[in-house]
Amino acid sequence: MIKNSFDLKKLIDLEKWDSLQESLSAVTRMAIIIVDYKGNPVTKHSGCHKFCNEIRGNSELVKYCEKCDSRGGLEAVRLNKPYMYLCHYNIIDIAIPIMIEGKYIGAVMAGQVKLLNADAESILEQIVVLPKNSIAKKALEDFKAYYYELPVLSYEEVNKIADMLFSLCNYLVEESLEKNLISDMYQKVMKRHSEIDSNTLKDYTIKNIENAKKEMSNAIINAYIKDSTLSNDNNVKVNDNLKPAIEYIYEHKSENVKLDQMAKICHISISYFSRLFTKEMGENFSTYVSKLKIEWAKSLLEETSMQINEISDELGFSEVGYFIKIFKKYEGVTPFLYRKYCKKK
């Protein structure tokens, strides 16, 4: 469950993230770091500017920075969206919350830039105000040259970067949740649990569960179907324009794929896709997919003890009656009779 087992180090592949974070920092010209819900860094600081590096390297001055980070993170959680603010040196920082079902897991902290239009600063909150004659004010004088080297971006640019990082975080969280759920479900199955208990599914969204089910279905099907990928089928020669669609069909056997969906994947019009498909594959899209699914169904009937309705569901048929009808159309017998007389001993 999320509250017990998920933390940022499990949720995000930090080795892969480090490389991505370096690239994001270089492209956006912002310093970027991920912190956990307590504010502790879990990644290195990419693109940390000389000025901020000097400030954060001082045991007294870093306290101001940590106060800004803490408050910025809390505001981002409260708003459940990126929070842009001014630090004690009027430098722009952004806190991007990483949330799972309302639970705060951590944040991406980005910034260390100045605004192109100083007037825009008036709409932002300055979290910490420096006291007069403070050591922080003296540091500003000492490192003034570094301060004026800070990157300058427009308010609009900073906003777009914040939205991009927020979307990226949400995508990574969704992907990671589904992988964790699939792993949990797989472990349950391997331990011979007759069913997935409610605790396994707790804290996951309906979308997570549906996507995990699709992945599990594909894994089950591929385990029993020979030549389960397009690359293994030497008889299939595919036009480059159609290849993305054919690969998708082979890789998503449990889905009820639609012609318009496949045309979109290939980035061509529906009418052109339909004509090209029939010309290149020798039959129309619907017939091709139906025959392919029946071949997969035959493998499942021969190799497994799955019920007819289960096979129908796993192969994406809308209802078992339609599956039986299509099977008999191409094989001349019902799935039941096929299994009875053709199943391998």
From TrEMBL:
SUPFAM superfamilies: Homeodomain-like (SSF46689). Residues 243-341 form the HTH araC/xylS-type domain. One of its GO terms (molecular function) is DNA-binding transcription factor activity. Pfam families: HTH_18, PocR. The keyword Mitochondrion does not apply. Keywords: DNA-binding, Transcription, Transcription regulation. This is AraC family transcriptional regulator. It comes from Clostridium diolis. The lineage of its organism: Bacteria, Bacillati, Bacillota, Clostridia, Eubacteriales.
